[in-house]
Amino acid sequence: MDITSLLGTSSLVTADSVGLKSKSVTDGNLFQTMLNGALENINNTNNLLSDAENAEISFAMGETENTHDLIIALQKASTALQYTIAVRDKFMEAYKEIMNMQI
Fold it and tell me: pLDDT tens, 61-80?
């Protein structure tokens, strides 16, 4: 059952809620938009991992004693990495399914 019909939204509105800013499917830019969103996600994940590493180094060197900020940075990095890996796995699954299609 497609819940978008129940909510009165289109799949593009749903796509906008996850960061895809496409106006219509007929624009032909949907793939480019999805690719840019994926690249932005990877860059964001990389920044969060870098911030977590800097927080660990700062804590280890005694520059800060705030364990709360350290744990938050580590959790953000961990969550972002798990999300990125899940998205990658779904892309790979879709790619494999497309490659197995009979033409």
Answer: 999 888 999 999 999 999 99
- In 4-46 the beta strands, taken as DSSP E runs, fall at none
Separation between Cα atoms, residue 23 and residue 13, nearest integer Å: 9
The HSE-up count of residue 103 (CA atoms within 13 Å, CB side) is 2
To the question of pTM greater than 0.90 for the whole model, the response is no
Nearest Cα residue to 22 out of 7, 33, 11: 33
Q: What are phi and psi of 57, to 5 degrees?
A: -65, -45
User: Are the C-beta atoms of 94 and 100 separated by less than 8 Å?
Assistant: no
